[in-house]
Backbone:
């Protein structure tokens, strides 16, 4: 049972345009959400996060939106740059079973075309 | 550089063998996590330790075990290896366990079972 889903395995965007990466979750107990970026042969690096008490968090070119009623999370990158090309993982933190843990989506490969 | 160190970076071994992956968390971090990323799969949570004690268990096989030592470094032991165990194994660490706590990843240990 996938509790965090990234339904788009890949996304291509022109440089300078907006990239929108989407994530859906099923566990209403998740209360903290994160986005990680991963380049090939490297570990995931933290990008931005949002608490469930907020609906938007912005950090430079990156903005995360949270729609709790829809159980939907999105990451906006504006403007997109070729260096943003990477796999983006959405992650949700909260109780699963008897403990709290971080659950990841399967990732979306973003390609920013020059 | 996330501050999380993993060794070895690459490892090739035969089926039926046993290997140990090592992780040194960021200075001051008490919590260590292990994740597995297989081909075409997202990051799968295996296990978490906090200050030497097991805190949460995910999809970890019985052939796998882990521990966190008094100096807070952690080891993931994989035994009776099968071809399907070939994957990238990530260690991550965080200061505490709880909401709003960012997790930092190492660069991973690439295990190939032949």
Residues:
């Amino acid at each position: 049972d996938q509790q965090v889903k990234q339904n788009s395995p890949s996304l291509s965007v022109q440089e300078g345009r907006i990239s929108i990466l989407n994530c859906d979750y099923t566990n209403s107990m998740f209360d903290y959400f994160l986005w990680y970026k991963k380049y090939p042969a490297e570990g995931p690096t933290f990008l931005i996060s949002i608490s469930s008490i907020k609906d938007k968090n912005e950090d430079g070119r990156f903005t995360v939106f949270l729609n709790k009623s829809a159980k939907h999370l999105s990451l906006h990158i504006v403007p997109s740059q070729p260096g943003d090309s990477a796999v983006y993982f959405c992650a949700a933190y909260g109780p699963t079973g008897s403990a709290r843990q971080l659950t990841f989506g399967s990732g979306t490969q973003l390609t920013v075309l020059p | 550089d996330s501050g999380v160190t993993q060794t070895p970076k690459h490892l090739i071994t035969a089926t039926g063998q046993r290997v140990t992956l090592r992780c040194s968390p960021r200075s001051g971090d008490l919590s260590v996590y292990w994740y597995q990323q297989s081909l075409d799969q997202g990051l799968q949570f295996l296990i978490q330790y906090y200050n030497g004690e097991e805190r949460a268990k995910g999809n970890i096989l019985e052939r796998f075990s882990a521990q966190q030592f008094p100096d807070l470094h952690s080891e993931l032991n994989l035994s009776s290896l099968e071809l399907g165990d070939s994957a990238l194994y990530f260690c991550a660490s965080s200061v505490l366990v709880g909401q709003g706590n960012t997790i930092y990843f190492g660069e991973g240990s690439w295990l190939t079972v032949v």
About this structure: The interface with chain A takes residues 2, 4, 6, 33, 35, 41-45, 48, 55-58, 90, 92, 97-108, 110 of chain B (CB under 8 Å). Chain B is about 0% helix and 50% strand. The mean pLDDT of chain B is 90.
